[in-house]
Design brief:
Elements (H helix, E strand, L loop, with lengths): L2 E5 L3 H12 L4 E5 L2 H10 L2 E7 L7 H7 L7 E5 L5 H9 L4 E5 L5 H25 L11 H13 L6 E4 L6 H10 L8 E5 L8 H6 E2 L11 E2 L1 H4 L4 E5 L6 H13 L1 E2 L8 E2 L3 E6 L3 H6 L5 H7 L2 E4 L9 H17 L4 E2 L1 H9 L5 H15 L3 E2 L5 H8 L3 H9 L12 E5 L13 E5 L4 H15 L4 H8 L3 H12 L1
Parallel strand pairs: 1-2, 1-3, 3-4, 4-5, 6-13, 6-14, 7-10, 10-13, 15-16, 17-18
Antiparallel strand pairs: 8-9, 11-12
Length: 479
């Protein structure tokens, strides 16, 4: 939890204070009103809240009563009036730490308060982890991840099968482990198997076990993973890679709670909670004949979908800072991410998700000094930016005009002699000869967005760029 929320003050003062906060390795967020502050606190966990006592023409205590504060958060009152009411609040609170700070605080006062926030943040983070142990390996404050935590909390105490869907690197095994940790069988075994990593001729033996002499090379009895996970949880990753003929036996074990080892005469009773995962579309696998439909429905009693990292708001910065802190702790260093690194991290799509981010932070830690700017991301960012809007123009302008179901973007350079008759102004953007490439690109993007009524996904598809790149462009235009 790295966020510090600034509530009130004028815009310039908020930005000055935010800049000072970020120099201490904290992430600053701003809100001009109490209502905006509540929205920010609903979306993001805060280490501290700095409240202007004049926000919304209310006193600091009135504003404080409206905010959804959590235990162990630090509250800093920004005021030039050290009144008794504020002093009483500071001395009588048990769970919240209060500070007073002048609106025009000098460097020494800011240093004292921000260092205090950093210290209390460490204590609060440790307390939160102890209080929510099941999620201690899962980081993220985005609404998407909060919903995942909510789903885990609901399904974990039951015995329902769970199917976790998500792209590679999103943390599916962490979710399975969290479900196990919150279940009634948390003290029993948690066994994880990657179905895609087992040779097809060995998967039955791996899952169900075999008796000595069951086949050539079976020189001793083998216990399968179902038995190893008895009374516990069996996590089967890449479930759609399991051979179809084995899926029938697997389904029977789920339905009856019994299995027969290869070469055995008697059946063995097993009590296992199955959590499966896939990075593929299960319905697509069913349509292609690679996955049994009845098995899909049996596993997907409770489906959980993990969001890709590019859709998790500022979780990417939280995770990056966390991974860097792990290396710092292990090597006893104090390296930090620069503002440049954070901007690079925000701009990149992270197709490999959290796993790729973790590896990239490790690489940056090794290659760079105390200030980690992640220069190693430049090549990836360049690749992500390939396929400029200009390239997209040429590609889409060649489409068959008779296809009325798909819109296209095109650009037309004009001068004073250009004949504009017959031009459809809804689908053609005209720019004067001599317009810069950047300005032409900006006009094309905004025109295309307008054509698609603000639908960024469709606009990015037509322009031939990623949605992330489109957001980056729009952010640049706002600046």
């Amino acid at each position: 939890m790295h966020n510090v929320l600034i509530v009130g003050l004028d815009r310039k003062a908020r930005h000055r204070l935010a800049a000072a906060i970020e120099q201490y390795g904290l992430d600053a967020r701003t809100a001009g009103t109490v209502s905006q502050a509540c929205d920010e606190m609903d979306r993001h966990a805060m280490a501290a809240v700095m409240i202007d006592c004049g926000v919304d023409d209310a006193s600091g205590l009135q504003a404080l009563a409206t905010l959804p504060l959590q235990p162990h958060q630090t509250v800093v009152f920004l005021s030039d009036d050290k009144g008794d009411a504020l002093a009483d609040a500071i001395t009588t609170s048990d769970s919240t730490m209060f500070e007073l700070l002048p609106r025009d605080a000098g460097e020494a006062d800011l240093d004292r308060v921000l260092k205090s926030i950093k210290r209390s943040r460490g204590d609060a983070d440790g307390s939160a982890k102890r209080k929510s142990k099941s999620f201690e390996s899962m980081l993220g404050n985005s609404p998407e991840m909060l919903e995942v935590y909510n789903m885990i909390a609901k399904v974990a105490p039951t015995d329902a099968s769970v199917l976790i869907c998500g792209e590679s690197g999103t943390g599916k095994e962490l979710v399975a482990s969290a479900i196990h940790d919150r279940s009634e069988c948390s003290s029993k075994p948690f066994v994880a198997v990657n179905c895609g990593a087992i040779a097809e001729n060995l998967i039955e033996s791996e899952l169900f076990g075999h008796k000595k002499g069951a086949f050539t090379g079976a020189d001793k009895d083998r216990t399968g993973v179902f038995e190893l996970a008895h009374n516990g949880t069996l996590f089967l990753d890449e479930i759609t890679e399991m051979p179809v003929d084995v899926q029938a036996r697997f389904l029977r074990v789920l339905e009856t709670g019994t299995l027969r080892k290869l070469g055995a005469e008697k059946e063995t009773t097993v009590n296992v909670r199955v959590v499966a995962a896939t990075n593929r579309g299960t319905k697509e696998a069913v349509e292609q004949g690679r996955f049994r439909e009845d098995l899909m429905y049996r596993l997907a009693v409770f489906p959980i979908t993990l969001p890709p990292l590019r859709e998790r708001d500022d979780d990417v910065i939280l995770l990056a800072s966390h991974f860097l802190s792990l290396h710092n702790k292990k090597q006893k260093t104090e390296k930090r991410l620069t503002d440049q690194a954070k901007e690079r991290i925000r701009r990149y799509d992270w197709p490999g998700n959290v796993r790729q981010l973790r590896n990239m932070i490790h690489r940056g830690y090794i290659l760079e000094g105390s200030e980690v700017s992640l220069d190693c991301l430049d090549d990836l960012l360049d690749d992500d930016e390939t396929g400029s809007c200009g390239d997209a123009v040429n590609a889409h302008a060649d489409k068959d005009d008779s296809d009325s179901t798909e819109k296209s973007a095109s650009i037309r350079a004009v001068d004073e002699t250009t004949d504009n008759s017959g031009v459809d102004s809804d689908t053609v953007l005209e720019v004067e000869v001599g317009t810069t490439i950047d300005e032409a690109e900006k006009q094309l993007i905004l025109k295309t967005l307008d054509e698609f009524e603000g639908n960024k996904t469709e606009a990015a598809k037509v322009l031939g760029i990623s949605v992330k790149t489109l957001y980056n462009r729009l952010n640049d235009y706002e600046k």
